[in-house]
Amino acid sequence: TPGPVGSGQMGPQRPGQFLDLLQECVDVDLGVLGEARDDLALTYRFGSTLYNQTPAAIAYTGQLAPPFAPVDDADRARNDVTVSRPDGGTARAQLTSGPLSVQSPPDGIGRYDTSVTVNAADDDQLDDIAGWLLHLGTVDQERYPALSVQLAAPEWQSDPTGMADLLAVDSGDVLEVTGAPSWAAGDVRTLVTGYTETLDEWLWAVTFAGEPAQPWD
Fold first, then answer.
1. What is the per-residue pLDDT for 183?
2. Does the bond joining 106 to the residue before it have cis omega, within 30 degrees of 0?
3. What beta strand segments (E) does the chain contain?
4. Which of 68, 43, 59, 70 is nearest to 165 (CA)?
5. Is there a cis peptide before residue 67, judged by omega within 30 degrees of 0?
6. Contact at 8 Å (CB) between 115 and 82?
7. Given the DSSP bridges, would you call strands 174-178 and 56-59 parallel, antiparallel or unpaired?
8. CA–CA separation, 24 vs 11, rounded Å?
9. First and final CA of the chain: distance in angstroms?
10. Are 88 and 207 spatial neighbours (Cβ–Cβ below 8 Å)?
11. Hey, which residues does 148 pair with through a beta bridge?
12. Stronger pLDDT, 104 or 186, i.e. the higher one
């Protein structure tokens, strides 16, 4: 089924395992493949649906549960990206200047390269895919790997609308911590990549994993 305007167009379907073929679609469109919450099914969010979202909010004071700790992980950096197409061409994108560039320190971080193969419909798509992967791999922003809430707390029980909004958050949605302290470097918005939920007699905890949402703005 054709996707929305701007979604990646696929090349011919080749023989392969079912999940591998689905992953080929994700690799071209750069969206989010996941599991449905209310059915035994897989879901897919087109890459274009990740852009410029209105975030769900978590107040730093009263709603956010510890720990609240950023990481600045250079091992996620990719500043030299090569993208190829089966039986097709190749495109390469590099960041040549700036703090996360391929320049040697202190002018950059050195070369962090990666090579991927995507089953795109045409070689003309490769430059855009390589450029976008470079964009995602050179985010100069701290990542908050875990944002936790305790929904059994009085602050959440007295805010049913906020609780409903939070419970609707799924992979690919954006969370924002409001009222964060000054040391949090301002923009604390996270694109959710997954979550865990824990329930017992006294606890209703949800912890969201994610990465900086800024690249999708």
1. 82
2. yes
3. 32-35, 42-45, 56-59, 64-65, 80-84, 90-94, 113-117, 147-150, 174-178, 189-199, 204-212
4. 59
5. yes
6. yes
7. parallel
8. 9
9. 27
10. no
11. 65, 207
12. 104
CB distance 66 to 157 below 8 Å: no
pLDDT tens digits along 83-131: 999 989 999 999 999 999 999 999 999 999 999 999 999 999 999 999 9
State residue 188's pLDDT score: 87
CA distance 42 to 36: 6
Q: Is the pLDDT of residue 27 over 90?
A: yes
Give the C-alpha separation, 44 to 40, whole Å. Answer: 14
Residue 3 has pLDDT above 60, yes or no: no
Tokens of 11: 């090349």
Q: Number of helices and strands (H, E) in the chain?
A: 4, 11
Region 68-93 average pLDDT: 91
Q: Which amino acid is at 217?
A: D
The model's confidence at residue 1, banded by pLDDT at 50, 70 and 90, is: very low
CA dist., res. 210 & res. 55, Å (int): 13
What's the rounded Cα separation, in Å, for the pair 94 and 198? 42
